[in-house]
Specification:
This protein has 466 residues and is of the alpha+beta class. It has two domains: 188 residues, no CATH class; 211 residues, MetI-like (MetI-like fold, Orthogonal Bundle). Helices cover 67% and strands 10% of the residues. It is built from 19 helices and six strands. Strand 3 and strand 4 form a beta hairpin. Helix 3 packs parallel to helix 7, helix 6 packs across helix 10 and helix 12 runs antiparallel to helix 13.
Length: 466
């Protein structure tokens, strides 16, 4: 009985079946998960949890936030129950409009902070963000004391993270509503770009001391705007995956870094591959001609030096030398430098692959061509090269796949390739797992597609032989 051969399609069907089964398992588990809290909660208990959660928010050194919190009060009025192990609290709040007051006077605050910073620096005194924050304390507290009172109704949420144990969930909007916009004030500090000093406009985008000093006046701790996870371990894992996926790829359109990087990677691979094939065939023909006829000795020596240098040094070192030492001084772009480097590198390996294919052809083929009246060049083109190409096609395909993967080091010279796209997302989200796995999967899919296409080409070539 003939055993069934597993091909790419079989593995694809198996993978799809596994994905479907996992999705069904998650759906069933989620459907039967308990979505109600395990017990009811009194208003008094809810008030205690809210007070505890809010009391842990302002850092003690963040006097601006502490002052706002001292002028704020949240009172729980009633409790209701949702369908996601949550308790919905209807609350009344009283606070002051600190964000509007700080926003209105931000120019005076930043100008004063920068003036203090410059005076101390010019006097030779060390000035860090902590000292500067203390120096502007009186001014900021004065503005906060003048802020208008605010009051109203707000909805807060408690989530049952363990049986009988609840956690207060606070979004940025909830914190800003209950406490005068302290989160918004931090964003205002981040957005500061210039300051006026001695009637001149000074750029402070890179002055971390001044901006950090202002921001630290309102800094919060023990604060995470992500909703607590309440499901079982399967649901938690799935929701964690959803959250990471959204944060790494959907949020701010970060998937575009991978798409643009993929385009760059494929462009480099295609152009370098074309250059490598042309150069490799040329070098292979020169070396074979020298071996068969004894001609082109000098050019053959040059080719041997080229092969020795390229195959004897790492591709990353070649890339750095070609770009930083040879091409950057004359203004050659990074992309073109990468194509040239990988093309030269690939050409050396293609040359040896093709040379091996040519030398594997029986000498009788060359003699048959010559006996039919063809010269050496015509015999190579019509008899030797077609047979050699069929023989080396799998090795050439493997070299092209190797070239695709080796192009990932192009980011070392600043080329925005696929790997660089993944690293860009990683730098924005501080997530290692999701961006790097995505890059690896994209490379894997491309390699699988190329392998399948080469297999189809090989089958057609075998049919043509028959």
């Amino acid at each position: 009985m003939k055993k069934k051969k597993w091909d790419l399609r079989s593995f694809g069907i198996l993978g799809l079946a596994v994905v479907v089964l996992v999705a069904l398992a998650i759906l069933i588990t989620t459907s039967f998960a308990d979505t109600k809290v395990s017990r009811e909660m009194s208003v008094k208990e809810a008030q205690r949890i809210v007070d505890t959660g809010f009391s842990e928010l302002p850092k003690k050194v963040a006097f601006g936030a502490v002052t706002v919190f001292d002028h704020s009060k949240v009172t729980v009025k009633s409790c209701d129950y949702g369908n996601n192990k949550d308790v919905i609290l209807t609350c009344e709040y009283e606070t002051i409009d600190a964000a509007s007051e700080i926003s209105k006077n931000q120019k005076d605050i930043i100008d004063n902070a920068y003036a203090i910073y410059r005076r101390e620096k010019d006097a030779g005194n060390m000035m860090n963000a902590t000292k500067l924050r203390l120096a502007i304390r009186e001014q900021i507290e004065g503005y906060i004391e003048n802020a208008k009172p605010l009051s109203g109704e707000v909805t807060l949420y408690l989530y049952e993270i363990e049986e009988g144990k609840f956690s207060l969930y606070l979004s940025d909007e909830a914190v800003d509503t209950c406490f005068g916009g302290v989160v918004k004030i931090g964003k205002i500090a981040d957005s500061l770009q210039t300051a006026e000093y001695e009637h001149e406009t000074v750029d402070i985008k890179n002055n971390g001391t001044v901006r950090t000093a202002i921001k630290d006046c309102f800094k919060l701790s023990n604060y995470d705007s992500q909703k607590p996870e309440t499901g079982n371990f399967v649901v938690k894992a799935w929701r964690g995956f959803e959250y990471d996926f959204h944060r790494n790829f959907v949020e701010d359109g970060r998937w575009a870094y991978l798409v643009q990087g993929l385009g760059t990677t494929l462009s480099i691979t295609a152009l370098a591959g074309l250059m490598g094939v042309v150069l490799g065939f040329l070098v292979a023909i020169i070396r074979c001609t020298n071996q068969m006829t004894g001609k082109l000795v000098f050019i053959d020596r040059i080719c041997q030096v080229y092969l020795t240098v390229v195959r004897g040094t790492p591709v990353m070192v070649q890339l750095l030398i070609i770009y930083f030492v040879l091409l950057l001084p004359i203004g050659v772009p990074k992309f073109l430098s990468a194509v040239l480097c990988f093309g030269l590198n690939s050409g050396a390996y293609v040359a040896e692959i093709v040379r091996g294919g040519i030398m594997s052809i029986d000498k009788g083929q060359n003699e048959a061509g010559r006996s039919l009246g063809f010269n050496y060049a015509q015999t190579m083109v019509h008899f030797i090269m077609p047979q050699a190409f069929k023989a080396v096609l799998p090795a050439l395909a493997n070299e092209f796949i190797t070239l695709l993967k080796e192009s990932s080091v192009a980011f070392y010279i600043g080329v925005a390739d696929l790997t660089q796209g993944g690293l860009k997302i990683r730098s924005l989200t501080y997530s290692n797992y999701m961006p790097l796995i995505a890059v690896a999967l994209i490379y894997l899919v491309i390699v699988l597609v190329l392998t399948k296409l080469v297999g189809i080409l090989e089958r057609r070539l075998r049919k043509s032989e028959r």
